[in-house]
Amino acid sequence: MAATVEHLDQICTTLDKLTLDALTLMQEEIDLKINAENAMIGGETHLAKTRYILGHNSVSNLQLPTENSPEFNALTVVHTNDDEYGVKQFDLESHKPDNETYLNPSKWFGYLVPHDLQFAQNLYRQALQWLVQAANVQNRLRENCLQIKQLKELKQELSSN
Amino acid sequence: MALHSAVKGKLISVIGDEDTCVGFLLGGVGEMNKNRHPNFMVVDKNTAISEIEDCFKRFLKRDDIDIILINQNIAEIIRHVVDSHSSPLPAILEIPSKDHPYDSAKDSILRRARGMFNPDDMA
């Protein structure tokens, strides 16, 4: 009986810690997404300025590659690793354009593009960095919630005995 | 870094409105593979819900995609499919768009996490 009470105390203490962690992670994810949102808003403004200079349809989905476009590789990819707790964590890797395997996407919109398009490109790259960090936090939060759920079940099982 | 160069990284895919797709493709996430399958989808007011659902499910099945970025307002349209995904890979990230600011109350993972503390939200 005493052992069960001790176990329950341990579970409750761990649950308290995990709950605090979950709240911290939730706040962290929201902050990261708001940072990404601010970068995206900046990017959208520069895209709008580029449209003002080049014309309304010059920066639209009409310029994006279609199924008939030649094959090309992504400049930005992620590498996925497990951290010390076995949670999937992403690491962003960016390649430099070499005009062969890796093309600079700004070329889709013309060869002499306004600086605003490059500013927009930089801001969207920043947004990507924030979002990859948010994805890492999200995976930690998911794992944290799973542990809370398992401990709650164990606690209920011990309490009912 | 040397390890990174040896191993081909995984893709980040985008399902979003015109500005979101143009922006992130400009940022370098876009790819057209050998089978001519893009890793992005531009959603406009004429796009059918079934098309969005099919594209989302296709991205979930692709093993070369590790992160799916989706505008939160589009995720709302296919919420039942988004909520049914529980695996950490690919990670689904709900992002804001030009006309729809980020709302943490609608986010799939955050809603689930909040549900751990408040049973009323689980319903």
From TrEMBL, chain A:
One of its GO terms (molecular function) is unfolded protein binding. InterPro entries: Vma22/CCDC115 (IPR040357). Keywords: Coiled coil. Residues 134-161 form a coiled coil. GO terms for biological process: vacuolar proton-transporting V-type ATPase complex assembly. This is Vacuolar ATPase assembly protein VMA22. It comes from Dendroctonus ponderosae (Mountain pine beetle). The lineage of its organism: Eukaryota, Metazoa, Ecdysozoa, Arthropoda, Hexapoda. The gene is 109539017.
UniProtKB/TrEMBL annotation, chain B:
It comes from the Eukaryota. Pfam families: ATP-synt_F (PF01990). GO terms for cellular component: proton-transporting V-type ATPase, V1 domain. One of its GO terms (molecular function) is proton-transporting ATPase activity, rotational mechanism. Keywords: Hydrogen ion transport, Ion transport, Transport. Belongs to the V-ATPase F subunit family. Subunit of the V1 complex of vacuolar(H+)-ATPase (V-ATPase), a multisubunit enzyme composed of a peripheral complex (V1) that hydrolyzes ATP and a membrane integral complex (V0) that translocates protons. V-ATPase is responsible for acidifying and maintaining the pH of intracellular compartments and in some cell types, is targeted to the plasma membrane, where it is responsible for acidifying the extracellular environment. V-ATPase is a heteromultimeric enzyme made up of two complexes: the ATP-hydrolytic V1 complex and the proton translocation V0 complex. The V1 complex consists of three catalytic AB heterodimers that form a heterohexamer, three peripheral stalks each consisting of EG heterodimers, one central rotor including subunits D and F, and the regulatory subunits C and H. The proton translocation complex V0 consists of the proton transport subunit a, a ring of proteolipid subunits c9c'', rotary subunit d, subunits e and f, and the accessory subunits VhaAC45 and ATP6AP2. This is V-type proton ATPase subunit F. It comes from Dendroctonus ponderosae.
